[in-house]
Design brief:
- This protein is an alpha/beta fold.
- The chain folds into 2 domains: about 270 residues, 3-Layer(aba) Sandwich (Rossmann fold), CATH 3.40.50.300; about 60 residues, no CATH class.
- It is about 30% helix and about 20% strand.
- It is built from 11 helices and 12 strands.
- A 12-stranded mixed beta sheet has the order 1-3-2-12-11-10-4-9-8-5-7-6, covered by helices on one side.
- The structure holds adenosine-5'-triphosphate.
- The site of adenosine-5'-triphosphate (ATP) has 16 residues, from helix 1.
- Belongs to the HerA family.
- This is ATP-binding protein.
- Keywords: ATP-binding, Nucleotide-binding.
- It holds the Pfam family DUF87.
Length: about 350
C-alpha cells in the first residue's frame, strides 16, 4: 500500500519519488508515501531551524535527479547541497554543482535593475538606468548607453557607479546560465552561498526566468523544477516577480517550484495560497503559525497548528495535499547522499581549537 501526494491517481500513472512513510500513532513507520513527479507542482516546505526543511529538500532533489523527464535546479544559499554530487546509497543521484553562477544582465527588466541598485526610476540617475536596461542586455552596453545619453554629469556618474558596483559582483555575464545549461536531467546545484543578498537574488531571478521562458518557447523538453532553500530571502528581493510568475502561471508550461522557509510569515500570500502541497515540520513562532492557519483549507478538520498535530521531532511532517484534499502525518525518509546542512557543535572542536567539520 502506498499513497502518491499531488496525484489523483495510482502510483503506476507516472514517475514518483519516495518521500517517506506514514507515521503510525505508536511512532512506527507505516505505508510508503510518494510524491508525484509527473505533473507540475508548487510545494512549500516550512519549519523552524533544525527540524529538517533542508533535509526534506535534499530528499526531493535526490528523487528528481533519479527521475526521467524533469530538469531539477536547486538554488543553494547556504552551500549545503553540493553533497548531492557525492556517492549515493542505492541508485546513483546524477548531480552537478555550479560554483560561480552568472546570469545575463538582460534577465532583469528595467524596474528590477532600479530596485537591485537602489535607484528610484523617478529620479534622474534611476531613469537613466531604466532606459539603459530597456535598450541593452549587457553591463558594458548599459554603461555605454548611460555615458552617451547626454544627461547631467551627476546623474551619469551615479548611474555609472551603480553599474560598476553590479559588475563587481561578478554575477552578470553575456554567457551566463541559460536553459540549455540548466535543463539537463541531473540536479543542477546553483551555489549562491558566497554572494550577498542582492547578487544572490539577481542570480535566482535569472535562473527562474530562463527556465520559465524556455518552457514558454518550447526550447527545453524536460519539465523544470526550481528548488529554493531559505526562500524568504528571494521572495523579499528582485527574484520575487519571477517566483510569483512560476507560482501563478507555471502550471500550463509545466514549471514547478519547491520553496523552503523557516519564516512562512515572510512569504507573500501568493506563495502560500498557490502552493498545492504544504509540508510542515515543527513550527512555534506565533506569526508563522498564524500564516499557516490563514492558509488552512476548508476540508481540514480542526487546526493544523494544534499542539498534537504539528510534529516535534526532526524529519517528521504534516502534509496538506490540495490535489487530493488530504492530510498526512509522515516521516521523511533518510537521505541517500550525505546531508550537508549540519550545524557545527562545540564538541566538533578539538583542544587545539581546530574545527573538524569538513
Ligand atoms: N528525515 C530525516 N531523517 C533523519 N534525520 C533528519 C531528517 N530530517 C532532519 N534530520 C536531522 O535534523 C537535522 C537538521 O535538519 P536540517 O538541516 O534540514 O534543518 P533545517 O530545518 O533546514 O534547518 P535550517 O533552517 O537551519 O536550515 C539534520 O542534520 C538531520 O540530522
Amino acid at each position: 500500500m502506498s499513497f502518491v501526494l499531488g496525484r489523483d491517481g495510482d502510483r503506476e500513472d507516472g514517475p514518483v519519488g519516495r518521500l517517506g512513510s506514514y507515521r503510525a500513532l505508536d511512532g512506527s513507520d507505516g505505508a510508503a508515501l510518494h510524491l508525484d513527479l509527473n505533473g507540475p507542482h508548487a510545494m512549500l516546505l516550512v519549519g523552524k531551524r533544525g527540524y529538517g526543511k533542508s533535509y526534506t529538500m535534499g530528499v526531493i532533489a535526490e528523487d528528481l535527479a533519479r527521475s526521467r523527464g524533469v530538469a531539477p535546479v536547486l538554488v543553494d544559499p547556504m552551500g549545503a547541497f553540493d553533497t548531492l554530487a557525492e556517492p549515493a546509497d542505492g541508485d546513483a543521484v546524477p548531480a552537478s554543482v555550479v560554483e560561480e553562477p552568472a546570469v545575463t544582465a538582460g534577465s532583469l527588466d528595467p524596474r528590477s535593475w532600479c530596485e537591485l541598485l537602489g535607484l528610484s526610476p523617478e529620479r534622474d540617475a534611476g531613469s537613466l538606468l531604466w532606459r539603459a536596461a530597456q535598450e541593452e542586455s549587457t553591463i558594458d552596453g548599459m554603461q555605454a548607453h548611460v555615458a552617451s545619453a547626454g544627461a547631467s554629469s551627476v546623474a551619469t556618474r551615479a548611474a555609472i557607479n551603480h553599474l560598476r558596483l553590479a559588475d563587481s559582483w561578478g554575477v552578470f555575464d553575456p554567457d551566463g546560465l541559460d536553459a540549455t545549461a540548466l535543463g539537463g536531467p541531473e540536479v543542477t546545484v546553483v551555489d549562491v552561498s558566497g554572494l550577498a543578498d542582492a547578487p544572490m537574488n539577481a542570480v535566482s531571478r535569472g535562473v527562474a526566468e530562463a527556465l520559465y521562458r524556455a518552457r514558454i518557447r518550447d526550447s527545453i523538453d524536460r519539465l523544470p523544477w526550481l528548488l529554493l532553500d531559505e526562500a524568504h530571502t528571494f521572495f523579499d528581493g528582485v527574484a520575487e516577480p519571477a517566483l510569483e510568475t512560476i507560482l501563478t502561471r507555471g502550471r500550463a508550461p509545466g514549471v514547478s517550484l519547491v520553496a523552503a522557509t523557516q519564516r512562512p510569515s515572510a512569504i507573500p500570500e501568493v506563495g502560500i495560497s498557490q502552493s498545492d502541497i504544504l509540508c510542515a515540520h515543527r513550527l512555534t513562532a506565533r506569526d508563522d503559525l498564524a500564516a499557516l492557519e490563514g492558509a488552512q483549507p476548508t476540508y481540514m478538520n480542526g487546526s493544523l497548528v494544534d499542539a498534537e498535530r504539528l510534529p516535534d521531532v526532526p524529519g517528521e511532517v504534516v502534509i496538506i495535499d490540495d490535489e487530493t484534499e488530504t492530510i498526512h502525518a509522515a516521516r521523511i525518509r533518510s537521505r541517500d547522499t550525505p546531508h550537508g546542512g549540519t550545524s557545527p557543535t562545540a564538541s566538533d572542536v578539538m583542544d587545539d581549537g581546530v574545527t573538524q567539520v569538513e
